[in-house]
Amino acid sequence: MMTRAYPLQLHGGMRALVPIGRALFVLIFLSSVPEHFSRGAIDAAAAHGVPLATIAVPVSGILALLGGLSVLLGFRARFGALLLVLFLVPVTLFMHKFWGLSDPQMATMQRVNFLKNTALVGGALMMMYFGSGPYSIDS
Known about the structure:
Helices cover 66% and strands 0% of the residues. It has 139 residues and is mainly alpha-helical. The chain has one domain (17-130). The radius of gyration is 17 Å and the shape is globular.
């Protein structure tokens, strides 16, 4: 069996896929930042049992902004990915508790969001390992 040494060596047009992938990955974080500074988001988080929601929600917006920009630009992207993990884990556990919900449609929706966030954590962990790749400030 053939093993491949990392980092991967991408050639030609394949290298352009990396910054496109970084941009698509962080779109969900960067587009959600303004909402983290709204009364509605703070009230929703408080209703879900987030402690100190008036502080935690804006701080989570700052994590999403800094982590998202870091990964997008490829500037200290491993640290930026860590910020995204620090954002995602509590958001996922507090805001997307699908277990124990009596409404099956709500439980399904929250399960989908829980699994989506779990996949995003996986992507961020991969970014922490592999780094930002080509066409980045770090490279």
